[in-house]
Amino acid sequence: MAPTALQSQRKVPDLFTTNGIVGIVSHLASIYDSGGRQAASLLNNMVRGRGGMIRGGRGGMGRGMGFPRKQFLPRHPFDYTLCEAAFPRVKPAPDESDFQSALVKKNADMCPTPKEQTSILNLVTKLQSVLDNLIVAPGTFEACQLEEVRQVGSFKKGTMIKGHNNADIVVILKTLPTKTAVEALGNKVHNDLKAVNPKEIFRVTQTEYGFDIGNNEATVRVLITTLHQNLRKLESEQHLDVKICQGHLAAIRHSRWFEENAHHSSIKVLIRLLRDLRSKFEGLQPLTPWMLDLLAHNAIMNNPSRQALPINQAYKRVLQLLASGLFLPGSAGISDPCEGGNIRVHTALTLEQQDLVCLTAQTLLRVLAHGGYRPLLEGTNKLAVEMSVWAGGVVASPLEKAYEPPTEQEQQEDMDESTEEMITESI
C-alpha cells in the first residue's frame, strides 16, 4: 500500500543541510519506484514547483547555493511479462479460455460490415482519383497547388469500428493553406466528383481542418496541411491553424510507422478493443488514438520471445502497465517512434489526466482480476466511479485522485519567483 504524504514527510531528513536536500529528492524518488501515486504527487509538489521547499529550476532554497541539479532518470514500472522468468509459478496459470473467447467475440461484433467496408472503399477510391488528377493536371484550378495525397487513420490501418464509417485523407499543399484556398479546393473536388459520377449524391462540408466529402453511406475527412518549410509562414487569421497542420503531417508519419511495424492482426484486434474500453470509461478518454496504437503494439510485441502475445494476456497487460504508472511523471513511458529527441508520448497529457488514467486502470484491473471481464466488454457501466462486489465478497472501490492542482496563491508565488529570478539574472 502506498504511504500517505504525511507518512512520507515524517521520513524526510533535515532540510537545512546539504545532505538533507539531496536526500529528500532521493527518498521521494525511491518511494515513487514502489508504485505509490500519492508519493508521486508529493514529489511533484516539492520538486516541480507546487509550493514546496525545493523548486527545480524555479528559485527556492537550492537555487544559487552550489547544489548540483539532480539528473532526471526515467524508470520503467514493473512489468511481469518482461521478468516472468524471475517469478516462477507455484501453481498452473488460471484457465482464461472464456475470457479470450469473449474478447474475440467482442472484436467480431465491432468489425465493420462488408457493406460498410465496400461503401467507404468506393468513396475513398473515387476521391483519391479526383485528388490525384488535380496533382497531375490541375487545369484552370489555381487556388492552390497539391503536392501529395496520403491515406491515414483507422481506415488505412485496418482498425475501423462498425458504425463509424469514416476515412481520413491528408492533402499536402505546395502553397500556403489559406482558408479561401481550402474552401475553393473543397468545392472543386465536389464538382469533379459529381461530374464523374452524375448519378450519385455528394455533399461537402467545410471544417477547421479542411473539409468533409460524404454520401448517404460514408464520409471521408480531407485533412489539409502544407510542406514543412511553409509552417513558419502561417498566420492564424489568414491560414489554417499551424498546430492542425503539424498534426496532419504527424498523422502521415504515424500511418507509415504503423504500416511497417504494427501489421500483425493481434495488434489491430487489441486497438479495436482498447478504443471500445476508452469510450466506456471517462478516466481513459485522455488517451489519444496514437497512444492506443503504441500501447497495443507494446503490449503485444514487447516481450522476451518477440512473438505476439495471446489477446487475453495483452489486454490485461495494458491495464497492468497503466495501473503501475507507465503514464505517470518520472516513468520512461513509451517513446514516440515518429518524433526525435526521445519524446515520451504521455507527456502530452496534463498531470491531472495522467493521474486519472492511472487510477481508472487500477480500478478496472482489480475488477478484471476477480473475473469481472464481462462488464468491461458489455454495455456502459460505472465500475470506475462506483463500488462493486465480486466473487468471494471482494469489494472494488473507486480510488481517489492523488494529484491536486496548485491553488491560485501557489501559481502567483511561482510567477513572482520567476520574475524575481529574471531580474536577479539580468543584474
TrEMBL record:
One Gene Ontology term, aspect cellular component: catalytic step 2 spliceosome
One of the GO BP terms on file: positive regulation of DNA-templated transcription
Keyword terms: Activator, DNA-binding, Nucleus, Transcription, Transcription regulation
The keyword Coiled coil is assigned to this record: no
Superkingdom as given in the UniProt entry: Eukaryota
Record field: compositional bias (Acidic residues): 410-427
Region (Disordered), start-end ranges: 402-427
Subcellular location(s) of the protein: Nucleus
Gene3D superfamilies in the cross-refs: 1.10.1410.40, Beta Polymerase, domain 2
Alphabetized GO MF terms: DNA binding; double-stranded RNA binding
PANTHER family in the record: INTERLEUKIN ENHANCER-BINDING FACTOR, INTERLEUKIN ENHANCER-BINDING FACTOR 2
Protein name in the entry: Interleukin enhancer-binding factor 2 like protein
